Each structure stands twice: as C-alpha cells, then as structure tokens.
Amino acid sequence: MQSVAAFTDTYLPTVNGVTYTIQTWRERWQQRGGRMDVVFPKDDEYTPEPGEYAVRSLPFPFYEGMRVGVPRVPDAVEDADLVHAHTPFGLGLAGLRLARRRDLPFVATYHTPTGEYAEYLSSVDVIERGVERTAERYERWFFDRADAVIVPSDDAKRRLVDEVGVDAEIVVLSNGIDTEQFAPADGDAFRQRYGLGDGPLVGYTGRHGYEKHLDELVHAAKDLDVTLVLGGDGPARDELERLTTDLGVDARFLGFLDREELPAFYSALDVFGFP
C-alpha cells in the first residue's frame, strides 16, 4: 500500500467535518495496510500521536479558534508516495512544494468554498465581493496544479467548474459515513440527559460559522411548535443565541458533543436541519 502525506490547516483539537473526514480516511487506510501521515498546525491543547506532525502555527485573526500552519514540510513525510492537500492555504502549499520537488502525485480535496469566509473580513458588500473574486482566482490557481481534485458532491464539482473555472480532473467522492458508529441509538436517553422533553426536535450539529447560515434555521423554526437543538460552537453562536431570544424560538445550545454522542443526538431528532 502507498504511503500518503496529508496536509491540512484544520485538525485536532478543532472538531469539525474536515477533521472527522481526515481521521476516518486515515483509519480506513491504515486498516488496509497503508500509511497516512498528517501535517497540521500546532496547538498546545493537543498532543500529536505517531504519524501526526504539528508545525508552527499562527492564530487566524478573523476566525476565533482557528490556526494557520506555517508552510513547512517535516522530514518524516519526505518519503511519501503521494501528497494529499486538504487546504489550499499554508500547509496545502507546503504539500504542493513537496510533490513538485519529489515529482509525486498531488491530490487536493475541496472541502469548503474559500469565498464563504469573505464576510469574516468585511461586512461591506463591495469589499466582500472583491474578496470572493480574489478567493476564486486563487482557488483556480491552486486546484489546477493538482493531478486530481476530490469533491464531496456533484454540487461542489459544478461550483469548481462553472464558478471557479478549474480545469483539473475532478472526482466526486463522498466523505462517507461510518455505519458501524452511526447506527440507530437511544434517542430517548439523550433527550433525558439534556432535558429536551418529549416534543418535536429540529437539530443541527457542526461549526457555528456565519457561512453555515444557521440564522435561516432559526427563522424557519420561529412559527413552528418545535425545540431547536444546536450542537457545536463557533463565532456565530452569540448572535444565534440573541436571535433565538429575539424571535422567541425555544432553542438549546449544547456546545461541542463527543463523537460518541452523535448517533444518539441524531436518533433523538425528528428533523435534521442543514441550511
């Protein structure tokens, strides 16, 4: 089996979809006899395990809790057979540099449209649109240098082709679901543990970022006889809490949930909301 060097600006202790995806792919690759090293931004709250290499990082000034790795290639991953970038930024550039220097296949996964973060930089529409256009030009430059680009859905592929203008080979590959873990669980026990009652529950779990448009979920729940349950955290949480109060929405903010709790969380819901 080939050895893979994965480069990402999002990893533990940050908990989100990108982190889960990388962990799952790494576990499955190792189970099949392969090796996948992960290069990620150093965070004092997380101690790397074997095969994980933390590089010096800086806080991202516009997104609380996020760090950006300095584009460095650890010596331990120099012997990789393939480079996989999960970010187009600092550490993705380090991965691209390694692939070019050693003439290795370079694969990049498109997790999130970079332009969605424009609103973190400015609330002025004209500036926001300018940032979005610049982000798309950069995405086109980066992903066109990949031998293959992985996207999680047909919609993501359409965006890269039609809006960003990427010419590289694009492969649609779902992030997948671990059906061994995500099987029906005791939702009633979860309701009881968090005091959610017996009424209808509409829920979401994930990053509370502005780009997630969770305010739309709050507005949708305004005229319904439901309890809105939000797991996770992020920079938009305070505003979401104020919005639920202003609109009179019965909402519960649970904060970060352990991964082991997620099957019970989903089982407790009547509707999962994903704007």
TrEMBL record:
Residues 190-275 form the Glycosyl transferase family domain. Residues 15-181 form the Glycosyltransferase subfamily 4-like N-terminal domain. GO terms for molecular function: glycosyltransferase activity. Keywords: Transferase. InterPro entries: Glyco_trans_1, Glyco_trans_4-like_N, Glycosyltransferase_grp1. The keyword Cytoplasm does not apply. This is Glycosyl transferase family 1. The lineage of its organism: Archaea, Methanobacteriati, Methanobacteriota, Stenosarchaea group, Halobacteria.
